[in-house]
Sequence to fold (109 residues):
Amino acid sequence: MAPVYSSAFAPPTTNEIGAMGAMMPAYFSMTHENCLSVQFNEGTMLKKLQKLRPDKSQGPDDIHPMFLLRSAEEVVKPLMILFKASYSAGVLPADWKCANISPIGNRLQ
Fold:
């Protein structure tokens, strides 16, 4: 079983990186000009909160999407304050940089 996983999740070789680099999309750089156009809008954030899927599990912050969905109108204002403060300071909380990643192998043919 170990050889199957190692072949699927092994780091790419130099030749594979070169081939993948040609297929990678262009990198979008957040320059100063791009950052000036970013705006936080309560209406947009409320719509995004209301579109959360309650059947999904919580992320690293342990906040379930069902909670955010049902309390969207109450939490939109504090979230706006948090996002604006984070953006103006240029700092992201460490928890926002975390993710729960679980590899799912392909079925053997």
